[in-house]
Every structure is written in structure tokens, then in C-alpha cells.
Amino acid sequence: xxxxxxxxxxxxxxxxxxxxxxxxxxxDDILIIDAGILFPGPSVPGVDFAIPxxxxxxxxxxxxxxxxxxxxxxxxxxxxxxVLSDLDVPVYSSKLTHGLMSxxxxxxxILKRARLNIIKPHAPFNIGVFQIEFFHVCHSIPxxxxxxxxxxxxxxxxxxxxxx
Length: 164
Fold this sequence. Notes:
Layout: E1 6-12, E2 21-26, E3 29-33, H1 55-59, E4 64-68, H2 74-77, H3 80-86, E5 90-93, H4 95-107, E6 115-118, E7 125-127, E8 130-136, E9 145-151, E10 154-158
Parallel strand pairs: 3-4, 4-5, 5-6
Antiparallel strand pairs: 1-2, 2-3, 7-8, 8-9, 9-10
């Protein structure tokens, strides 16, 4: 039996569409899943968008191992330029999502230093104590992925968004 808990920390995206960001933490390893923005609309005058609160991640930046992206909708990739401005971590995504993120990062002036990685579905790889395997899901944008994350305590399935 392991002595460390697996922490599942939603930093945004629960209960509404937008600011999607989930964190998995085990011992000294932190994974981020998605980094989206929220468009608040007319109910919040003067606010164009909101991003997840990444204070915890910045305070623990030496333990953040990677950012995994499920798909290319703004509520999942819109905050990436802000996150990568504060955290120097590799980013893993599908080919289409990689292209969409690259435009955002180029516009923000940080594409050259970003460590972007295109994944292949069903090709497991390791990040810290985690084994990562992306898989296709049906969604309203092509190349959307779910992620199976094997941890020392079991498997976590993160579907991103999906549509049937």
C-alpha cells in the first residue's frame, strides 16, 4: 500500500463551460489537464475573459511535470499562453490541437520557447510516476482526446469533453 494520496484538484471548469483545468498530484509529481478560458458575457461588464487561478501551480512549479490538452476548443486551450508564461513545462496534444495552440503561442510571442509535443493515440508514455495514454473521443471538434492516466493508486480516465 502506498503512503501518498492521489489529489484530484479542479482549478476550473466544473459546473459551467469555461476555464477547464484539472490537476492530478501524486507525491512530487503534478500533471495539468487543459488550460481554458471562460467568456463571462454581459453579466460581467468590462471583463473579456477569465482564466483559472494558477497560484497553486506557480507556488509548486518545480513539481509540475506537464500540461496535457484534450482538444482545441477555447475553453480548453485559451489560457495556455498565460500558463506557459508562468510555467516552463512540456505540452502534449493531438496534431490539430497543436496547430491551434501554436497560433496562440506565436501571437503571444512565446512559441519559440514552448515545448510542444504531438501525441499519437494509444501510444503510452511516462511523465514522472504517471503513465499517459491518449485515446479518441467523439466531440464537435476533430482530433479530440480523452486521457487514461495510470497512477500508483489506479487509473484515472479524463474524457475532456465528448458528444454522442
